[in-house]
């Protein structure tokens, strides 16, 4: 036995890279729809469904992305970083920080409700959980993603704004045909207005307490420090206290009303 | 361990609920997160630094977590004048508005927007990674003095936050004192860089950033100690404080209170946890220990 | 991880066995401990800093171990001229003699004692806790230049070791370059202090000390990166290096090699362990990565 | 399960004082002999017999001291720090770093050989080990320390330079009456010349491999960094590779020939 008063422990002599971005190499790029692309890399990240990573597109920016698979992100092209991402080729490199945030608590019979690219964070729910009904909305049939893959695993129902597939209208409309009492867990991801309208329906039908919403806010640090992703009125950080919030906690929140941009200015 | 008696705290013209202040730029952009920190036990809060124009900040990555600290280059993102709306929701609370500018006039202007709402101002002349601002002016004693004077025209308590990235921090502290500062906050982050060996590039979008957290605590203690010897206005210690023992150590170096930022990453409830360890009904008076290490 | 091909290494005029150099002041007072470090895999060794008169150093405590580094104020203890005897035992070995003085004349004198035995000199113009020496002269570009010139009169390679405790390290780096330095070593320790809350006094006998080890690695990388942009002579990275990955990171910032000091506290065989991870027959050429993070 | 990519582990939120001196309060001061005093404090340090601590006498210096008990040091007055130490009163404070260094490997029948204050580091051997013969030397009877206490626990034999107690002569002389083969472990602590002469005797009598010597050298850091305690010819640090060294490894060492002072200058 050797006792040393000064032993600095595991801190020394190990690489200090823990919190630095992990470099991954892209192995495969799959176009899911005209605007959405999945990028696979050479490393799986142990993660809870619903957690996200910060993706460093060197020279451009670092942006939050759900892990659609343990080794992939699914990107909707909206601006600089996402445009570079969807154009990337196998062999190119990304930096990944995370996974960060909490995750869904999933049990029993699950109802998944997604809008647009919001299907990506819910993909693993459909693929990995045993008893899932998946309500999926998009503007048009072309923009439905993961539809075929999910159909093989679960009961998928579709809504399109233009009626080009499934129900003609918003995904919240699909809820009319669903008996919410049958479900133990309801998970939701999509644009803010879609989530607010789903929230309203669930509230009316007294199903809020079993619902979980995956929120999106502008993120810089991803670890609950910088404050750029904070939501009113509780000052919770989407990156750390979320991104998954119970519907109950969102009732009186800013969801669907406004959010703050990179400068902290409120935007509708 | 030493515990302190819970007494009303007045530091640098600010009446705070305890000796622990939320540091600038940490959960400080909206009223709701600032209130949250007050609810969870912060004695006062400093807002994100507000400047003359809205800024969106540097491209990411903006922050990385190291084993013993954080490194960030946020790039001073802020909503500028519109921050008035957030402040309204905090009226009556111990809120210190952090401000920055490129010259004394800008400091004066920005302070003016908040003069009726802020309990006090903190002058950020120390951010190490925003060109034209922060440490770029905070290394020059004359400018620091002039900026302090400009803000003091609003007749509010003014804290001046210093950068450790100078040859002699006491010369800057003295300049702030001459400019009429009510307190010195030491320190802002230490200029630093990490490189991603996988990407072969600096990890921060801005390349250079500021080191904070545990790694810089011994540097912060040193700066507080040096300033205590050189200046006579109150000092607020900042840099790497993450437990009650650290607070006591900072006070012994000469700090009247401390600011806490990075430690939030490990424990969002850090304020209540430190309070629990730091205060006790039979604790001693803080006066007994502030600066006592100077013998 | 990137590995390097084992090639002969020439840095700043010194032909070393690999890229890893024992930093000044760590196990560097006697020939026997220096040989031990060479045997255990150091590519070259820097001696304890030797000055114009024997010194016994500061009263203790002289060093404390922190979780992420060391803090020391040894006070430059050294046997002065008598160190010649130790050096004799190391003839033919890659030994760099660290020297200090209070002015160019003293630097010249001390260097003269070892001019026939040292492979090179390292000028310590950066120790942050010895009055009249080290950083007290190393913050002045003119003096740094003059000291470098004085040592260069002996026609030996001269490395100049810089302090990070300055507003702008590049101005000092450029001064060394103008003085004829063959390499810049960055960095020496960061001025720091810790206080014993039990004793209510600074823990170091000298009160102020220098922070080294892991805590300062991001500061050291930043300094190397800045110097690489400003200077054209080789840079040796120093500060917090404790594994092969750190060596690669320092090189990408612009270092040709690294010095390692504090990491010895955790692993006295650090040199052989890093060598094992760093070199491989199919490794890449160091030339490919030195400075590559600058894009 | 929550996985977080950034968890900085135990580093945060815990006091950083681990390697800093621990403050202890003196509880009792016992004069062992005219020049030697034991100072007890309010805290036990888990330690191996043979380890030492760095004792901070605030305002004066920090010096190495063996733990004579888990909660005490026994000091021979020689200079500034030791003079202040022996004058201290209960209630006063010291700073303690450590314990540092290795310790004795103790087994079987043990022969302990001490000279002067060198009895202190061996005290616990005599008190805690079952089968110990203790050879104890001092200049004069007055300077024998722990004699009574040890006599109750083990077979103590005494030598004094002036013959005022026990054998008249050096402690090495006592070895003549000892059958070294009976012992499994031989531990030695005392001034350098005394240890060198014991070493010579053990060498001649082929007992070096079971011997362990507790070395003293000038120490500043105590943790194997500063180099002030290094010994020739192997460059081993007394503070970290020692202070206990096997007799075999000391045969060709500087022991008894010279040592280095605080400046690194060789002294006899
Ligand atoms: C937790 C979380 C998970 C996400 N998961 C996915 C996903 O799986 N797939 C996907 O396609 N998108 C996802 N997003 C949205 C994605 O982060 C943004 O679309 C992306 O950041 C846009 O970057 P850009 O440079 O292309 O656009 P920009 O031109 O920079 O901005 C376009 C818009 O994108 C948003 N945005 C930009 N930067 C950020 C940022 N740092 N953080 C948050 N929003 C930003 C803003 O609303 C902005 O107005 C997620 C967002 C969050 C917060
Ligand atoms: C591992 C170890 C264990 C020791 N255990 C004991 C013990 O149990 N009891 C005891 O009385 N003494 C012990 N000593 C010796 C003790 O450390 C010195 O007597 C003490 O440091 C003298 O300090 P001073 O200020 O009184 O003397 P000073 O006036 O400073 O010096 C007097 C002499 O003491 C020695 N000395 C001074 N400082 C140091 C130092 N930092 N390290 C080593 N030697 C020094 C030198 O030989 C010096 O010439 C031990 C030494 C070592 C290395
Ligand atoms: C993410 C982040 C943002 C910061 N933003 C600001 C800022 O806007 N203004 C400022 O003066 N300091 C800012 N700082 C510096 C902190 O207020 C504080 O001085 C520094 O982090 C050291 O304290 P700590 O170790 O407790 O974090 C920021 C620090 C961090 C980590
Ligand atoms: C105990 C100790 C003694 C040192 N002595 C010297 C010295 O004599 N001369 C010098 O230039 N640097 C000295 N240094 C500084 C180191 O050489 C090095 O620059 C610094 O410790 C940073 O590197 P590291 O983090 O690898 O230790 C000393 C450092 C330590 C820890
Ligand atoms: S992104 Fe920084 S707090 Fe959430
Ligand atoms: S006392 Fe520093 S190496 Fe032993």
UniProtKB/TrEMBL annotation, chains B, C:
Pathway: Pyrimidine metabolism; UMP biosynthesis via de novo pathway
Reactions the enzyme catalyzes: (S)-dihydroorotate + A = orotate + AH2
Cofactor binding note: Binds 1 FMN per subunit.
Domain Dihydroorotate dehydrogenase catalytic: 13-278
Cofactor annotation: FMN
The keyword Transmembrane helix is assigned to this record: no
Pfam family of the protein (one): DHO_dh
Subcellular location(s) of the protein: Cytoplasm
Keyword terms, alphabetized: Cytoplasm, Flavoprotein, FMN, Oxidoreductase, Pyrimidine biosynthesis
GO biological process: 'de novo' pyrimidine nucleobase biosynthetic process; 'de novo' UMP biosynthetic process
GO CC, any one term: cytoplasm
Top-level taxon of origin: Archaea
Binding positions for substrate per the UniProt entry: 48, 72-76, 124, 188-189
InterPro entries for this protein: Aldolase_TIM, DHO_dehydrogenase, DHOD_1B, Dihydroorotate_DH_1, Dihydroorotate_DH_1_2, Dihydroorotate_DH_cat, Dihydroorotate_DH_I
GO molecular function: dihydroorotate dehydrogenase activity
Active site per UniProt: 127
PANTHER family named in the record: DIHYDROOROTATE DEHYDROGENASE (FUMARATE) (PTHR48109:SF1), DIHYDROOROTATE DEHYDROGENASE (QUINONE), MITOCHONDRIAL-RELATED (PTHR48109)
NCBIfam families registered for this protein in UniProt: PRK07259.1, pyrD_sub1_fam
Subunit structure: Heterotetramer of 2 PyrK and 2 PyrD type B subunits.
Protein name (record): Dihydroorotate dehydrogenase
Taxonomic source organism: Methanospirillum stamsii
Gene field: pyrD
């Amino acid at each position: 036995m050797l006792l040393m008063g000064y032993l600095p422990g595991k801190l020394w002599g190990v690489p200090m890279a823990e919190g630095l971005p992990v470099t991954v190499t892209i192995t495969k790029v799959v176009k899911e729809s005209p605007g959405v692309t999945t990028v696979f890399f050479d490393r799986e990240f142990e993660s809870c469904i619903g957690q996200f990573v910060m993706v460093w597109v060197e020279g451009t920016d670092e942006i939050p992305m759900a892990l659609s698979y343990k080794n992939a992100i699914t990107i909707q092209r909206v601006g600089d970083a996402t445009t570079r991402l969807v154009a990337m080729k196998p062999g190119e490199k990304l930096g990944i920080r995370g996974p960060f945030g909490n995750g869904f608590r999933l049990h029993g019979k699950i109802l998944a409700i997604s809008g647009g690219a919001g299907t990506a964070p819910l993909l693993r729910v459909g693929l990995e959980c045993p008893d899932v009904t998946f309500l999926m909305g998009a503007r048009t049939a072309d923009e439905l993603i993961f539809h075929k893959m999910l159909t093989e695993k679960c009961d998928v129902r579709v809504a399109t704004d233009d009626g080009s597939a499934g129900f003609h209208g918003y995904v919240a409309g699909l809820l009319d045909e669903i008996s919410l009492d049958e479900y133990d867990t309801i998970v939701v991801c999509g644009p803010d207005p879609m989530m607010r309208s789903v929230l309203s329906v669930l509230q009316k039908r007294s199903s809020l307490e079993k619902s979980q919403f995956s929120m999106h806010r502008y993120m810089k640090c991803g670890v609950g420090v910088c404050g750029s992703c904070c939501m009113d009125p509780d000052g919770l950080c989407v990156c750390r206290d979320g991104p998954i919030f119970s519907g109950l906690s969102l009732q009186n929140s800013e969801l669907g009303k406004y959010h703050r941009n990179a400068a902290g200015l409120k935007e509708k | 361990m030493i515990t302190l008696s819970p007494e009303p705290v007045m530091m640098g013209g600010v009446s705070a609920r305890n000796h622990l202040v939320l540091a600038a730029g940490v959960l400080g952009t909206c009223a709701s997160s600032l209130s949250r920190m007050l609810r969870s036990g912060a004695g006062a809060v400093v807002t994100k630094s507000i400047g003359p124009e809205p800024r969106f900040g540097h491209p990411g990555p903006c922050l990385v977590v190291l084993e013993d600290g954080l490194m960030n280059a946020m790039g001073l993102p802020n909503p500028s004048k519109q921050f008035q709306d957030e402040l309204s929701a905090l009226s009556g609370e111990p809120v210190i508005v952090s401000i920055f500018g490129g010259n004394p006039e800008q400091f004066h202007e920005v302070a003016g927007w908040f003069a009726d709402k802020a309990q006090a101002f903190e002058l950020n002349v120390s951010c190490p990674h925003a060109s034209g601002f922060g440490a770029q002016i905070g290394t020059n004693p004359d400018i620091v003095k002039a900026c302090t004077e400009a803000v003091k025209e609003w007749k509010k308590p003014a804290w001046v936050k210093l950068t450790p990235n100078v040859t002699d921090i006491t010369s800057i502290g003295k300049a702030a004192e001459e400019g009429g500062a009510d307190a010195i906050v030491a320190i802002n982050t230490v200029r630093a860089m990490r490189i991603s060996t996988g990407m072969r590039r600096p990890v921060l979008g801005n390349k250079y950033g500021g080191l904070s957290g545990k790694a810089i605590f011994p540097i912060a203690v040193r700066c507080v100690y040096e300033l205590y010897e050189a200046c006579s206005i109150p000092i607020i210690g900042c840099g790497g404080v993450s437990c009650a023992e650290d607070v006591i150590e900072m006070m012994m170096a000469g700090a009247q209170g401390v600011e806490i930022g990075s430690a939030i990453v490990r424990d969002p409830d850090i304020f209540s946890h430190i309070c629990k360890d730091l205060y006790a009904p039979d604790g001693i008076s803080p006066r007994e220990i502030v600066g006592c290490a100077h013998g």
